[in-house]
Specification:
32% of the residues lie in helices and 25% in strands. By secondary structure, the chain is of the alpha+beta class. The radius of gyration is 18 Å and the shape is globular.
Length: 272
């Protein structure tokens, strides 16, 4: 697929993000009552409204869509997809319910089980973090999605923070996560922590405000695919915590393994 075609797909996704964000914020501000799925996870009217809007926009690309809030096609069907969209219409629903503004929209384009384009949008901040194999990473304001000259393209940071900054959720570290943190302390000494809900952590990783993000808790493909496309475009990695192999997508099992996101600065020679 040519570079221009990827920009066309990006524009379709961004148009959906802007419309979905508007609906999410309207529900956020006027109030809502969460419901709960059979697995105990929360869902709100904002999740469902955003899902409908994104399916409308992304459906116009004639590329199959895998989204958290819709019935998933069986793997027998999905395995034949050459490309697909992987979507979380409201990442951080728990943060949305807590009303702390730390929620996002995640959209990734998957090709050959690799995330090749990612969009992570903050409805509250009205900005999107984008990037991928054919699209250089950038911060895009909602009011300038059609004006590439106004996009803020990101140059990867080449020196890690001192002390090293670990990105993570607001849940305390325990078990394997705590063991990994202790290993980092042995290697790098003092550590600092940046705690934030949802995929908004990738803004900090992309901009060099955080160096590493270990995740030793359950996540789904739509939680991380967009972030992987962006981080890899910057020269960083998203790898299986045990094998070191990059994550891949549109699997039979949509759960991710435990993983580690490493910023490009931390991969520079001499940083370990």
């Amino acid at each position: 697929m040519e570079k221009s075609a990827h920009y066309t797909l990006l524009q379709a996704a961004l148009a959906g993000v802007v419309e979905a964000s508007s609906e999410i914020l309207e529900i956020y501000r006027k109030g809502f009552s969460p419901n709960y799925k059979t697995d105990g996870s929360p869902v709100t009217a904002a999740d469902l409204a955003s899902n409908d809007i994104l399916e409308k926009h992304l459906g116009e690309t004639n590329i199959p869509i895998l989204t958290e809030e819709s019935i998933h096609a069986p793997f027998e069907e999905r395995s034949s997809w050459e490309r697909s969209w992987c979507v979380d219409p409201l990442d951080g629903t728990k943060e949305f319910i807590r009303r702390n503004d730390e929620f996002a929209i995640n959209i990734a384009l998957i090709e050959g089980q690799q995330a090749i384009l990612g969009i992570i949008a903050s409805p509250v901040e009205q900005i999107a973090l984008i990037g991928g194999k054919f699209v250089p990473p950038a911060i895009v304001r909602f009011d300038s999605i059609g004006n590439i000259d106004s996009w803020h393209f990101i140059e990867p940071k080449t020196v890690p923070n001192s002390p090293l900054v670990i990105a993570g959720s607001r849940t305390p570290h325990s078990g394997a996560s705590l063991e990994f943190i202790n290993q980092l302390k042995t290697t790098y000494g003092d550590l600092a922590y940046l705690k934030k809900g949802s995929a908004l952590k990738f803004f900090d990783l992309a901009l060099g405000k955080a160096d590493i993000y270990p995740r030793f808790a359950p996540t789904m493909e739509w939680d991380i695919a967009a972030g992987q496309a962006i981080i890899e475009a910057l020269g960083g990695t998203v790898t299986h915590a045990l094998t070191g192999v990059p994550l891949y997508y549109n699997k039979a099992d949509l759960f991710n393994p435990h993983f580690v996101v490493t910023s490009p600065a931390l991969l520079q020679p001499g940083t370990a």
